Amino acid sequence: MARLLLRHLGQTLLATWLLASAVFLLSRAGSEQALPTTTELLAPAASTADVLASRTATRHRLGLDLPLFYVGRAATGGWQWRGWHNQYHEWLRALGHGSLGTSFRTNEPVTQRLARALAFTLPLTGTAAALATVLALALGVHLAAVPRWQPPVRTVLVALQSLPLFVVALALLLLLANPDVLDWFPADGLASISTEFSPASLLETLPRLVLPVTALVLAALPELTLQLDAALAHELQQPYILTARAKGLRASAVVRRHALRNALLPTLAQLAELLPAMVAGAVVVEVIFALPGMGRLLAEAAATRDYPVLVGGVLLVGTARLISLLLADLSYSWADPRIRWQA
User: Fold this and answer.
1) E-strand stretches of the chain
2) Dihedral angle sign, alpha carbons of residues 224, 230, 233, 239
């Protein structure tokens, strides 16, 4: 078991490294397009020589004057060895020391920008994922135990699932943070308070996270509940359920003690996709509710061609995605001991 776990961890690290390397090489190939924006601080009447000097200094500062990779196309048309002193090698060496580079836009370490964004995104997405999971389990078990509630609840869930996340978020904003309807929650996001997440600002922060968390929960809840409901309906038709009912167990006990564990197997695969989906949904939610989190940071980095931040974000999200798949494999073995990893 330990050898297989180490092997899966190694495969996860390899896949993450390949993903980050591909994003880095593709982004650095287009980094020259971002350089004109670095001359914005020059005077409008700056001469061409000043602009060229600024571009040269910027390329040197960012390391863009080095070869991109170990090998590259020669001027004669063939391939040639470029040496170890190249952009990819320098990035890989810095990554080994825990550095993701420097932001093109703000000239600050990428790790600092990501850490500030994660301080808001992790509580947001983590709380939403936990609430969606607990509510889906409770609702799925209740629907299986009390079948008469299935038609109306399924109808509501299907209707909710058909709505895009931005529609759900805007509806909550207009209904519950609108002085003309219900002014229950603030609508200014976190713009009016400290940008640093701290216990001192927790009481002021929590009301501003209610609507974003609710939007993410409502977006994830239908798919999780409908999948679990379908799996439970299938398991309740199996012969071992008839045996459990013949013992005189109540419907809720039959569902919880016998059907639920087997029905969780398809749901575990969805849970592996839940956190990455929450991060993707955070892009929409954080923009609508003005939250300075990871999703908004990546959206702004893509729009402004801040490639180091974009590469760092992709590396972080890709790592979380691959680790969630690894945890799903471990959960399969817990839910059904008959499942074993193949060496």
Assistant:
1) 71-73, 79-81
2) negative
Q: How many CB atoms sit inside 10 A of residue 311's CB?
A: 25
Q: How many residues does the chain have?
A: 343
Taking the mean position of all CA atoms in its chain, how far away is CA 179? 33
Whole-model pTM over 0.90: no
The pairs formed by 136-140 with CB atoms below 8 angstroms and a separation of 24 or more are 136/220, 136/221, 136/224, 136/225, 136/228, 136/267, 137/228, 139/221, 139/225, 140/224, 140/225, 140/228, 140/229, 140/232, 140/263
More confident site: 128 or 311:
128
Q: Confidence class of residue 36 from pLDDT cuts 50, 70 and 90?
A: very low
For residue 201, what is the DSSP state? G
Domain boundaries along the sequence of the chain: 2-96, 110-335
Q: Which CATH class is domain 110-335?
A: mainly alpha
Query: What's the pLDDT score for residue 343?
Result: 43
